[in-house]
Amino acid sequence: MIQFKKFVLDNGLRVIIHEDLSTPMVAVNVVYNVGSKYEEPDKTGFAHLFEHLMFSGSAHVPDFDTVIQDAGGENNAFTNTDLTNFYDILPAENIETALWLESDRMFQLNFSKKALKTQQKVVIEEFKETCLNEPYGDMWHHLTELAYQVHPYRWPTIGKEMKHISDATLQQVETFFYNFYRPNNAVIVLAGNISEGEGYHLVKKWFEDIPASETRRMPYDPEPDHQILSRKVVYADVPHDAIFLAYNMKDRLSDEYYICDLLSDLMANGRSSRFYQRLYKEKQLFSLIDAFVSGSIEPGLFIIEGRLMPGVTFDDARAAIMEEISILQQELISDRELEKLKNAVVSSLTFSEVSVLNKAINLAYYEILGDADLINHEEERYQKITANDIRNTALNLFKPSNCSELVYIRNGK
Q1: Which of 122, 215, 250, 277 has its CA 20 to 30 A from that of 317?
Q2: 245 in helix, strand or coil?
Q3: Residue 412 and residue 235: Cα distance in Å, rounded?
């Protein structure tokens, strides 16, 4: 059980303090409720671009990294479809350094053509490196476009195309910032060697004068149920033919999410998993076989990825995967297998709560989900799952009409 205290400043900033005196460090985590799903279809990649711009200097701080490092700490950030997260970890006695930095860039960024142009180049190079020049790097571009027809999850976090990033103007960037990067659209968590009272006092000192704004979000429709199998073939310079099967699943707070998470572990997590034992080791059909959930807050994807061994046909690969799915749909898994899955999840949850940085990130995430206390109820959500739940979910999820199939064929074949 993670104990914490929650406050809300007058400007809407949600503040969460978790005291842990066993460490000399403090983690400061700021999450903004803005991810790629809040972008306009013709201006994608902005949330990820801002992850970079937030390190380009602010009203009074030209260089974030040097200041944090001089204070004995480190910082970083990440963006996904739903949120943008910035974190710092440093000795407790230097916590005000992190609070000064985070409050200054929440107040106002250094909006300049030079800073924008520099970060546009960085993001475009990242786009080229990870999406265009890396084998299967454009998978998310193809797969989300197949799986989503109306929801903004249909483009990846890095952006739909490079032109959206290169065409971004200073005015568009400023508008995006003052719309989303405001205290009333953010959560700050302090976790570590700091008391609840002192933590609240310091956050109030550094953040209460930052004005709130009326955050406007692009309206979008929920994704309708899929009625037909979608397929796409991509010829590319990849080392192996590959198949990706994406099944649309329910949202992060649904019971189905937790069942799908266990189901993906059963299929492909570790050397004792079914895919590894039967499709990789025994039948030797794949050089890599995996199953995972996208983990998005709104209805996401259950993805099966297989890279074929030389000489294996797509028909054989697909049939082998479907055979394993059929077994899950017809037979109940054993009590021993189910208990093993749950024990592994509990161990992972426990490990994720060891460091103050992980606790800070997780508390902020669950607050964005709706309630930071959800972090203390994850284990019970998994523990109540039954073998029948897994079989019924496999029956409902793995329907041909609910599938989007992406195939990579090596150039020259």
Answers
A1: 250
A2: strand
A3: 9
Instruction: Report, in angstroms and rounded to the nearest whole number, the Rg of the chain calculated over CA atoms.
Output: 23
Specify the DSSP class assigned to residue 13: -
- Per the structure block, which two tokens stand in for 374? 């959800």
Q: What is the largest CA-CA distance in the chain?
A: 66
pTM score above 0.90? yes
Q: Which residues contact residue 356 at a Cβ distance below 8 angstroms, ignoring those fewer than 6 apart?
A: 18, 20, 23, 25, 26, 27, 89, 191, 192
Strand ranges inside 113-185, DSSP E: none
Cα angle 78, 83, 390; round to 5 = 100
Question: Which residue reads 């030797």 in tokens?
Answer: 284
The pLDDT of residue 171 is 95
- Quick: pLDDT tens for 385-405: 999 999 999 999 999 999 999
CATH class of 230-410: alpha beta
Beta strands in 257-345 (DSSP E): 286-293, 301-308
**Sites in the chain below the pLDDT cut of 70:** 412-413
Instruction: Kindly state the tokens that stand for 38.
Output: 């809040």
Decide yes or no: CATH 3.30.830.10 for domain 5-207. yes
How high is the pLDDT of residue 243? Answer: 98
Quote the pLDDT of residue 332: 97
Task: Give the span between the Cα atoms of 291 and 305, in whole angstroms.
Answer: 6
pLDDT tens track for 199-234 = 999 999 999 999 999 888 888 888 999 889 999 999
5-207 and 230-410 agree in CATH topology: yes
Instruction: List the one residue out of 207, 181, 211, 192 whose CA is nearest residue 15.
Output: 207
- Angstrom distance (rounded) from CA 398 to CA 247: 7
Report domain extents, the chain. 5-207, 230-410
